[in-house]
Amino acid sequence: MKGYIKAFRLGLFSITIFVLFSCKSAQISKSLSKSLKANFYDHQFTGFMVYNPRTKDTVFNYNGDRYFTPASNTKIFTLFTALQFLPEYIPAFTYAVAEDTIVMRGTGDPTFLHPYFNDSTALKFINNYKEAQLLINNFKNEKFGPGWAWEDYDRYFSPERSSFPMYGNVVTIAHDNNLVVIPDVLRSRTYLTQSNTQRDYNTNVFYYKSGTKNKIEIPMVMDSMLIDELWKDLIPNKIKLIHKTSRILDQIAYSVPSDSLYKRMMHLSDNFLAEQMLVLSSSMISDTLDVDRVRDSIINHHLKDLKHKPRWVDGSGLSRYNLFTPASFVQVLSKLYTEIPTERLFNFFPSGGVSGTLKNWYTGEARPYIYAKSGTVGNNYSLSGYLLTNSGELLIFSFMNNHYTKPTSEVKARMQSIFEWLRDHY
């Protein structure tokens, strides 16, 4: 009899907890639904999904299965891809040595002489040999991603993709009494101007607007002529560009810690680093660099359980061809949360009110409560990541806004009020 009473009480307790939790979930869902049905959202397309990984419950789902233009939220899939394929240190290039000659093939490593990383691994290697040969035709894809806007060719956020990047594939220009140009070999082709154009189309002739005080970065045209010129400027009479080799390039040189690349890509929403991370990932499965192949591998193998297969065309999210659902972002964020220690994972993401693209938004009261990736392209803004509630729960979310005409700051302000309510009431 005592055992029966004990079991009854335990069952009653479980039912009570379930009812209370259900009531709370219903209250959360009702309040969030009311917020998203406000007149503010009448003339845009909105999706919002919230998931609790501890209870494995969907807390809220509003258009979570609809496809949206994700902009730089695409970088979450790029991060996931890199974490599946890349080792602890970035593979800088593959190579073979024959007597006094080193033969090298690029892997897509973006850090070589990059304005931030300034890695010099390749130079250190080459200095040990009398001659160096660089294989330059192992990148299969176009230099621009599908759907990139052609008029962005001279903008800092749209560098060309390549197999062996140099200087971040940009020329860096500043003005301190005189023009300061890196790489310096392009100084003779850089001019002061009154125009907003920063480079001649498809030509390495650059312009710096008079009166500008900031340092600027302009994409270079990474053709074989420029690559040869840049290398000869670094190490005269030592490097030779080749299109094929009979040697097996099975040795690997490594550059910077991979986590440093992931963090900068996510915090600054760096398009170039994101694109090259897919190129790098492809180097781990083939000597021919092919970002389409590595994306297909991720979708068809590592993420074959995705409920909604995305249309995924680039690594950065520059293209409006990309289409993802909030549910897909929640699924991938859940996988990352399961596979990676929280401290390391949160280090990759900008934190609200503190770092990266979220430094001026989503500020916590005593500590950050949001760790997430933003995505912005004209008339579209999304945010996907992790939210810490005052009750100690961790929630995974994706909040996507497409096709609005109001200022993005107003969209962010609305989102912030919703996130704060969720933080305080869940």
From TrEMBL:
Signal sequence region: none
Keyword flag Phosphoprotein: no
Entry GO MF terms: carboxypeptidase activity
Top-rank taxon, per record: Bacteria
SUPFAM superfamilies, sorted: beta-lactamase/transpeptidase-like (SSF56601)
One Pfam family here: Peptidase_S13
Family of this protein: Belongs to the peptidase S13 family.
UniProt name for this protein: D-alanyl-D-alanine carboxypeptidase/D-alanyl-D-alanine-endopeptidase
The species this protein was found in: Geojedonia litorea
Lineage, top ranks: Bacteria, Pseudomonadati, Bacteroidota, Flavobacteriia, Flavobacteriales
